[in-house]
Design goal:
With 306 residues, the protein is of the alpha/beta class. 43% of the residues lie in helices and 12% in strands. The chain has a domain at 57-236 and 272-305: Rossmann fold (3-Layer(aba) Sandwich). A seven-stranded parallel β-sheet has the order 3-2-1-4-5-6-7, sandwiched between helices. Helix 3 crosses helix 10 and helix 5 (116-130) runs parallel beside helix 6. The radius of gyration is 23 Å and the shape is globular. The protein binds nicotinamide-adenine-dinucleotide. Residues 61-62, 64-68, 85-88, 112-114, 139-142, 162, 189, 191, 234, 236-237, 239-242, 274 line the site of nicotinamide-adenine-dinucleotide. The site of nicotinamide-adenine-dinucleotide (NAD) has 29 residues, from helix 3, strand 2 and helix 8.
């Protein structure tokens, strides 16, 4: 049996094999050809499009801002067609205009994603516009309420309606379309607050925890249908939602100070960008991720690793 390769401290420090080291022995024995150089001739034998969502028909909730907006932009950049819905008409129509001015295949529907009576017709309209639905990114979410005593019943009900009930209702409506095509990917935007306790945000953490188990159960129900169901769970992001929390109308410096304090709690030392979450969403909706289902995919700069 061959002994394990020992990487010396020098190799680790300078990235070079010392003559007597394990790495040098291995590279000499194997006739190591030296550094690899990328040339324009060296087009890979695999597709250069790493993320395969080109041509997919995508429906996104809460697409006018933050993670949802980044998801709209990234899916379009990867060659998908997108319908997105949002409560915020102004931002939604502005984003649609900006993207359509650049000939992007995108449509906006102004809608409360938790409005039970309107979801079926919105999904119908999206399916007609897109010619079917392959991907649902159920992303709309709110963070209402506070600690256990301060939270009102109305805040609890509203948070659950948007964060848990709506993802279930949207999934119910898209499943028949996905079954028809024999291919589907549902991605929920969860949160690390649904994985660990987080004081002062009782309905939010409870709802995101519920969302993660909704995702797991749906994944099992749909596993035999060629439909994957996953969640991405961001940690602390720099989005309009976060900024709203951090602002104090009576203190002009509060936003900067609170953002910095928030970032300091993240092991990598900064807040995440919505684009970093969108990249994960797009991967989970791609042809490359067909074996990924029922998973909670964390994107949190190490926050929950501790
Ligand atoms: N910001 C963070 O640090 C963070 C961390 C973890 C998870 N998340 C989750 O990411 C998702 C997106 O959050 P964000 O930070 O991008 O927030 P955001 O406020 O920037 O964007 C959310 C979008 O959803 C829309 N929306 C809210 N309720 C809606 C409804 N009922 N119907 C339709 N649209 C609605 C808003 O109008 C907004 O455009 C949420 O599910 C949130 O819980 C955010």
């Amino acid at each position: 049996m061959q002994a394990g390769v020992v990487i010396t401290r020098r190799e680790r420090a300078v990235g070079l094999p010392s003559p007597s080291s394990g790495l040098a022995r291995v590279t000499q024995r194997a006739g190591w050809p030296g550094p690899l150089r990328l040339t324009s001739r060296a087009q890979p034998a695999y597709s250069s499009q790493a993320v395969k969502v080109s041509g997919k028909r995508v429906l996104i909730t809460g697409g006018a801002s933050g993670v949802g907006e980044a998801s709209v932009r990234r899916f379009l950049a990867e060659g998908a067609a997108v319908v997105f819905v949002d409560l915020d008409q102004e931002r939604g129509f502005a984003l649609e205009r900006e993207l359509r001015d650049r000939d992007a295949p995108v449509r906006f529907i102004a809608l409360d994603a938790s409005a039970e009576s309107e979801i079926a017709s919105a999904v119908q309209a999206a399916a007609q516009t897109l010619g079917g639905i392959d991907v649902l990114h159920s992303n709309a979410g709110i963070a209402a309420g506070g600690d256990a005593l301060a939270t009102s019943i109305a805040e609890w009900e509203r948070t659950f309606a948007v964060n848990v009930r709506a993802p279930w209702l949207w999934s119910r409506q898209v499943i028949p379309h996905m079954r028809e095509g024999g291919w589907g990917a549902i991605v929920f935007t969860g949160s690390t607050s649904g994985m660990v306790g987080f004081p002062g945000a009782i309905p939010y953490t409870a709802s995101k925890g519920g969302l993660l188990n909704l995702m797991r159960s749906l994944a099992l129900e749909l596993a035999a249908d060629g439909i994957t169901v996953n969640a991405v769970s961001p940690g602390h992001l720099d989005t309009p939602m976060t900024r709203r929390f951090m602002e104090d109308p009576n203190d002009a410096d509060a936003l900067g100070r609170n953002l910095a304090a928030h970032a300091a709690t993240v092991p990598v030392g900064r807040l995440g960008r919505p684009e970093e979450v969108a990249a994960l969403v797009v991967f989970l909706a791609s042809d490359d991720a067909r074996f990924c289902t029922g998973g909670n995919h964390v994107c949190d700069g190490g926050l929950t690793a501790a």
